[in-house]
Specification:
274 residues, alpha/beta, Rossmann fold, 2 domains, six-stranded parallel β-sheet, 11 helices, 10 strands, 16% strand, globular, binds D-glutamic acid
Length: 274
């Protein structure tokens, strides 16, 4: 059943963005760059991070609570800035809530299909994203392709530790991408919001022939398309404010968040979700 929203969204209402933690800030950054007038509210579910190895039911439960919180804050649309939550909860969220809800998998898949020439596409992501097969399904809806997947559970802790280059990052990246290289892929989707930080090490290990696609830019474009279509793009009255909420440890979010976001992450507020 759809949740009722009392007041109709207007163009100057904010956009709600959420992720399990910091990673979605890369998507928020891209939205802020593409649509600087839009007010943005970010929610990082730091009490439940990581989502990558959690069950579908748990991800749906967390995601519904977060979207309800964002809707109480009068957002006009929701961006699921997390691949795992997009893979496991997006369709439920779209059925439950009236506001437009978009994820990162469809925009990322479209970008990969248009980048690939030989239609051999690799996907790396968390266990949840890879096991859901969301990317192969989405890619093949757009264009028939061979899709090769690899889950990379060690990448998220590596990025959060800041070990994105050097000996350790190199050997872990090599181990994960080797099976994909033997498939002759020409495009690789970075199917997790943390992975763009490993871009350099991935490029080094994949060589020049493989194009890396991260969904942040493509998702920001999709946000623009949806708002335009619904006549909800912010007008000049908006100042483009940025607000940050988390479910635990705002200090840590602020400290690490500044590595993930192009602007300063400040005044992070903790919200009790349980
Ligand atoms: N944000 C998650 C994703 O994009 C990665 C971090 C996590 O496992 O929670 O899949």
């Amino acid at each position: 059943m759809q949740e009722k929203q009392k007041n109709k969204a207007t163009s100057n209402n904010p956009i709600g963005i959420f992720d399990s933690g910091f990673g979605g800030l890369t998507v928020m950054s891209a939205i802020n760059k593409a649509l600087p007038l839009e007010n943005l509210i970010y929610f990082g579910d730091s009490a439940h991070v990581p989502y990558g190895a959690k069950s579908k039911n748990a991800i749906i439960k967390f995601s519904k609570k977060i979207v309800s919180f964002l809707i109480k804050n009068r957002v006009k649309m929701i961006v699921v800035a997390c691949n795992t939550a997009s893979a496991l909860a997006l369709s439920v969220l779209q059925k439950t809530f009236k506001s437009p809800v978009i994820g990162v998998i469809e925009p990322g898949s479209k970008a990969a299909v248009s980048a690939s020439k030989n239609k051999k596409i690799g996907v790396i992501g968390t266990d949840g994203t890879i096991n859901s097969k969301s990317y192969p399904k989405e890619i093949n809806k757009i264009s028939k392709s061979d899709v090769y997947q690899q889950s990379c559970p060690l990448f998220v802790p590596l990025v959060e530790e800041g070990w994105v280059e050097g000996e350790i990052a190199d050997s872990i990246v090599k181990k994960y991408v080797e099976p994909l290289l033997s498939k002759n892929i020409d495009t690789l989707i970075l199917g997790c919001t943390h992975y763009p930080f490993l871009r350099k090490t991935l490029e080094k290990n994949l060589g020049k022939g493989v194009i890396l696609v991260d969904s942040a830019k493509a998702t920001a474009q999709e946000v623009k398309n949806v708002l335009k279509q619904k006549s909800l793009l912010a007008s000049g009255k908006n100042k483009g404010f940025l607000k940050f909420y988390v479910s635990d440890n705002p200090e840590k979010f602020q400290a690490i968040g500044n590595r993930f976001f192009s602007k300063r992450v400040s005044r992070v507020k903790k919200i009790e979700m349980d």
